[in-house]
Specification:
alpha+beta, six-stranded antiparallel sheet, four-stranded mixed sheet, single chain, Phosphorylase Kinase, domain 1, 16 strands, Transferase(Phosphotransferase), domain 1
């Protein structure tokens, strides 16, 4: 849309002319803005010199616009009072519409970046919006008859681009017979029956719509876009029923095809679906065009097929072994295993060796369906999944560069051959697209390399956590073993000191010696020095510092910019300079891009191989650490069992000692025989001499006072010694019982 400067005279009340948007057969369109509210409107003004027939069409367009209400059809607005009297003829009304700031589709297609078609997501959005608008018009019994990129405008709404149909000046309301005979519309997008002046129906919009879609996909119209209409009609009418394109080759031969020509930006799955749809709606015979009406829904089959295509979800998988992108239609409930089986068939990578990563480095969760990953995305921008082969020793060795288009291959081989301006324009456009494709190909693979690095860091993080856990367990085990060994050695030392005068047991002594030896062996399970030698931290740091790990596509971007400038210069040449010329300059850039791409690919593959090798080391190290951790836990359980056995042995010794202390008199005490003294009940802690009652003395000694007193004194002394020994044993038992033995109970419970 052309824009011109606005003068102070272009003001009507509070409305100021801001931009002249364009002109057509009926008049011109300008954008006006309110000075205070900043509201913007597109106002279409009718030409003074319109014929009576066109004046009628003008009024009809306004009437149609005022009663339409659809998000993909530009809506009408109220004409400001200040403009009604000052703009346009007195007898013809003005048409005010919503202003769409994104320009029209022609401007998008004319962008050099879209010389070989728009991006896949943009193509799908355009198809969806335009199809919705066309169906709405047909449902309201209106044929547009002039669908073309200039009559489709773009508006940004809720962070999404909306495509809207405008200019219903040639639209016609269907009569009862649903047939029309007037010849209207732009020739390049005109259905054959309109060109021939035959009767027509809504299927004329099918042809125009399909032509626009084809141009969005490839960057040019399907059937000989630069040929004179009469010659065009004579050749194209000979096309086959399923042919959707006619191309003039370098030798001037005309070639028909039923496939979408390369290059374009669609994935193979979507390409196949749209080829089938285009074959249906680009049918020369209007009675067969669109596939007829579905009896169940009453809707055209062509739009039903298109709805299915638009609802379908496609998963893109970048094979990091070959560099190819694999595309799969995915159902919402489809499992990850089903995807693995497809990849095993197409990528020839065994299921067990497949590693699927998102761009975040996270592996696909087998518990989730594939469709759940696609549902997280908005619009037609689907996530890329990266496929790695775990068994590859040198990954990336078989990565293939993007295929060179035939036309680009021709000018590379024949760079000095003189071509017409249109031939050069098409060839240079494809050459620029190929250079951009090389840069995008490397960028995708570098993103896959980044995903591999993030996956490596995630595995290393898990390894670090596991290693820290193993180290803590090792330290704890060593401390427990050392304490246990020290305790056992102390027991052995004290046992040896009392064996000559106290309790002895060779079986017990041997058991404690075995415990000490077994505990010493348990220390070996906590030794992680062998695993420390296999640490991969230094390798990871080296990979992160590698210059190849960072963005390296600048050299390709520079070549792409030069190719774009060269292509733009060719397109903008004045008509008088559009003669024959060679392709030497563009071919130099193509060869340079291919060489640089090959160099970058070798560096990327080398780094990727190191990343995957390092990851394999970590993957192999993890089970060893887990095994060591489990052995250390088992050693702790064994140590607890040894401690329990040792405690039982100690309590057995105490039991034996207590039993002997009750049964055997103290050493050196006399045997009194029949004169034994009855047992005394002594309060705890009492150790003083206790006098015996006189009734317990032997009667034969009662009369002899001196001797009797000596015997009594000796007996009291022996009794005092016995009581003191018993008290000491009781005190020792009390001291043992007062200790905290809860840890033993807890250990026993854990062991059970």
């Amino acid at each position: 849309m052309a824009m011109s400067l606005v003068t102070t005279r272009d003001v009507h009340g509070m409305w100021e002319l801001k931009e002249r948007l364009g002109s057509g057969g009926f008049g011109y369109v300008c954008m006006w803005q309110h000075k205070e509210t900043l509201e913007q409107k597109a106002v279409k003004t009718c030409r003074q010199e319109l014929s009576p027939k066109n004046r009628m069409r003008w009024c009809q367009e306004i009437q149609i616009m005022e009663r339409l209400n659809h998000p993909n059809v530009v809506s009408s607005r109220e004409v400001p009072e200040e403009m009604k009297k000052s703009l346009g003829p007195d007898d013809l009304p003005l048409l005010a519409m919503e202003y769409c700031s994104g320009g029209d589709l022609r401007r998008v297609l004319s962008n050099p970046e879209n010389c070989c078609g728009m991006k896949e997501s943009d193509v799908m959005m355009a198809i969806s919006d335009i199809a919705s608008a066309v169906q709405y018009l047909h449902k309201n019994r209106i044929i547009h008859r002039d669908l073309k990129p200039e009559n489709i405008v773009l508006q940004t709404q809720d962070e999404r681009v909306l495509y809207k149909i405008i200019d219903l000046g040639y639209a016609k309301e269907l009569d009862q017979g649903s047939l029309c005979t007037s010849f209207v519309g732009t020739l390049q997008y005109l259905a054959p029956e309109l060109f021939e002046g035959q009767k027509y129906t809504v299927t004329v919009d099918y042809w125009s719509f399909a032509t626009v879609v084809f141009e969005c996909i490839t960057g040019y119209r399907p059937f000989l876009p630069n040929m004179h209409p009469v010659q065009w009609h004579r050749i194209v009418r000979t096309k086959g029923k399923h042919d959707i394109v006619a191309i003039e080759e370098m030798n001037r031969n005309i070639k028909f095809s039923s496939h979408i020509p390369i290059p374009h930006n669609l994935n193979p799955v979507l390409t196949g679906h749209l080829e089938h749809w285009l074959q249906l709606v680009l049918c020369w015979n209007p009675s067969e065009r669109g596939g007829g009406i579905d009896t169940e829904t009453g809707r055209p089959n062509g739009f039903l097929i298109l709805d299915t295509i638009l609802r379908s979800k496609t998963l893109h998988v970048l094979n990091m072994v070959s560099g190819d992108i694999l595309a799969y239609p995915v159902r919402a409930e489809e499992s990850l295993e089903a995807l693995h089986l497809r990849l095993e068939r197409d990528a020839h990578i065994p299921l067990a060796q497949q590693d699927l990563l998102l761009d975040t480095g996270i592996a696909l969760d087998p518990r989730r369906s594939i469709g759940s990953y696609l549902l997280e995305q908005t619009g037609w921008n689907t996530p890329m999944v990266y496929l790695f082969d775990k068994s590859m020793q040198e990954p990336g060795g078989h990565i293939r560069s993007p295929r060179v288009p035939d036309l680009v291959g021709y000018i590379v081989a024949e760079s000095k051959v003189l071509l017409t301006y249109m031939q050069r324009r098409k060839a240079w456009g494809q050459a620029y697209h190929h250079i951009r494709g090389l840069r995008e190909h490397h960028s995708r693979l570098q993103q896959g390399q980044r995903a591999a690095m993030l996956s490596l860091l995630r595995h290393n993080g898990n390894l670090t956590k596991l290693k820290n856990m193993a180290a803590a367990t090792s330290h704890c085990l060593q401390a427990k073993v050392e304490f246990f060994r020290a305790s056992v050695n102390l027991d052995l030392e004290k046992y040896g000191e009392q064996t000559s005068t106290g309790i002895s047991s060779e079986k017990l002594h041997s058991a404690w010696l075995e415990m000490e030896s077994e505990a010493a062996l348990l220390l070996l399970e906590g030794d992680l020095s062998e695993l420390d030698e296999m640490c991969v931290q230094s390798k990871i740091v080296e990979l992160q510092r590698s210059p190849n790990a960072r963005r390296q596509a600048d050299i390709l971007e520079n070549t792409e910019v030069k190719a774009l400038e060269l292509y733009r210069e060719l397109r903008e040449k004045p008509r008088e300079e559009r003669g024959y010329g060679d392709c030497v300059e563009m071919v130099k850039l193509v060869v340079q891009a291919i060489e640089n791409h090959s160099k970058l690919m070798k560096e990327l593959c080398m780094l990727l191989g190191k990343i995957l090798a390092c990851k394999q080391e970590i993957v192999a190290l993890v089970p060893r650490l887990e095994s060591s951790l489990e052995r250390m836990k088992q050693s702790e359980r064994t140590l607890i069992a040894l401690q329990e056995k040792r405690q039982k042995d100690i309590w057995s010794l105490l039991k034996i000692a207590m039993s002997k202390s009750r049964q055997s008199p103290p050493a050196g005490s006399p045997v009194l025989g029949p004169w034994s003294i009855p047992p005394l009940t002594v309060p705890p802690g009492t150790t003083q001499n206790i006098p015996l009652p006189t009734e317990c003395w032997p009667k034969t000694y009662c009369g002899n006072g001196g001797e009797s007193m000596l015997l009594v004194a000796e007996g009291q002394k022996q009794i005092s010694l016995s009581l003191e020994l018993i008290q000491n044993l009781q005190d020792q038992s009390s001291d043992l019982q007062s200790l905290d033995w809860s840890w033993l109970k807890n250990s026993s419970a854990n062991h059970n």
